[in-house]
Amino acid sequence: MANVVLVGAQWGDEGKAKVTDLLSKNADLIVRVQGGCNAGHTVVVNDNTFKFHLIPSGILYGDKICIIGAGTVINPEVLNKELESLKEKNISVNRLYISPKAHVTLPFHIDFDKGNETKAGKRKIGTTHRGIGPTYSDKYARIGLRVEDFTEPRILVEKLEWLMPLKNALLKDIYGMSTYTVDEIYNYCMKYRFIFEKHMSDVTYLLQKAVNNKQNILFEGAQGTMLDIDHGTYPYVTSSNSSAGGACTGAGLGPSYIDRVIGVSKAYVTRVGEGPFATELNDETGKAIQDIGHEFGTTTGRARRCGWFDALVANYAVFLNSLDCMAITKLDVFDSFDEIKLCVAYRDKRNNTLYDYYPCSSHLLKYLEPVYETYPGWKTSIQNCRSFDELPENAKKYLKRIEELIGIPVAIVGVGPNRDQTIVIEDPIHGPKRELLTKV
After folding, report:
1. What is the per-residue burial (b if ≥16 Cβ within 10 Å, else e) of 289-316?
2. Which single residue of 119, 230, 373, 414 has CA 20 to 30 Å from 93?
3. Paired residues of 42 in beta bridges
4. Which segments in the chain show pLDDT lower than 50?
5. In Å, how far from its chain's centre is CA 248?
6. pLDDT per residue over 184-211, tens digit each?
């Protein structure tokens, strides 16, 4: 294999977990690099459904080392439930390691998240209310609690005695919410201390040994490129770098150790929460995609907004992440469609200006409407297809047009929810490095 970054090329929920599961077979280490339990990854194995929020889905392979990196934020209650769920299904978690540098989400972070959304009114972001943003805020304000603090009770008490008066003042005076005593938060931390004591490890050292021993590392992120805090549709974004660059900082190794970057996109586009979405379908077609694709959030159960594939978003993701190839998931959702559309440009509704690239101005996006190409559907099930040649001609044409538009090969195609309902067109790991070109 190689050292590979797997990144979402849309607004998250692209089906990364299934591709992670596929690639994990040949990896020695699987590293979760950023995000928190606002992410949800679903893997179906032998009709058993596994839902992951924090633990890398590679844990399903008993011989893999799985790591939660420093760039993540960890809700210990959610992590504990996830661990217990795996144990109930006889999945070993003994090879799970957690960076001592990862920050921890506490009950007041969830309160702040809910309070911020309530006060924002029509300007709300549409968060999952999981406390992710406030946890990252504390991290960057340098007042957050990290995993290592849970293993040092004396230091934890000292930090809480300083921190809680500040948090309580905000809870009471700004948000009108209930406050917490130092003892309440301390006891909450001690309840989950055993998890961190058991799984905490020097992740940077583990990665250094793996690199020196030429082991294969798979880096998996949460959310997607268009939710990146710097490069996404700000302010309707997540609170971490969900593009490929976040893999190095979130895991703890330099960029020259990365060999390949693989993107994941659905055959259409979805997003959860507020924010611009040029190809969104607020009609029966959008509802059909939602129903057939079971587009409801793993974490919140919220219905996802659905729309046609956007080649401008995909091109942006290709360049921003230096993608070598793309995995296209859920192509089978279109099995019953008469026709399928691809967005190939935007038109400014105010002056008819055409854009053949994704513009960086968040203020401009609300004036843009999609320009489509239309392709005939294939009107037959592809769920039993296991090679590109077995796909209907119209499905092949659709994929080939996507390749032409994004400038990199489609290496993997998902044709159903199960682990084996996957077509590998080109080796995503050992395929040639691409000369990445971008239109100017």
Report:
1. bbebbebebebbeeebbbbbbbbbbbbb
2. 414
3. 51
4. 438-440
5. 15
6. 999 999 999 999 999 999 999 999 999 9
Q: What is the DSSP string of 306-360?
A: EE-EEHHHHHHHHHHHT-SEEEEE-GGGGTT-SEEEEEEEEEETTT--EESS--S
How far is CA 37 from its chain centroid? 10
As annotated, the active-site residues are 13, 41
Question: In angstroms, rounded to a whole number, what is the distance separating the alpha carbons of residues 151 and 190?
Answer: 9
The bridge status of strand 65-68 relative to strand 29-32 is parallel
* Inter-axis angle of helices 107-120 and 132-140, nearest 10: 110
The tokens of 69 are what?
A: 């990196």
Structure tokens at 418: 């199960």
Report the relative pairing of strands 410-414 and 422-424 from DSSP bridges.
antiparallel
- Provide the pLDDT for residue 228: 97
**What is the C-alpha to C-alpha distance for residues 347 and 355, in angstroms, rounded to an integer?**
6
Query: Dihedrals φ, ψ of 217, to 5°?
Result: -120, 130
- What is the reported pLDDT for 242? 96
Q: Give pTM, 2 decimals.
A: 0.91
Beta-carbon count within 10 A of 206 CB: 19
> What 8-state DSSP symbol labels residue 373?
E
In this prediction, residue 388 carries a pLDDT of 96
Which residue, 250, 254, 246, is CA-closest to 227? 246
Six token digits for residue 148: 């290592």
Residues 175 and 115 sit within 8 Å (Cβ to Cβ)? yes
Local structure of residue 365 (DSSP, 8 states): G
Whole-number pLDDT of residue 432: 67
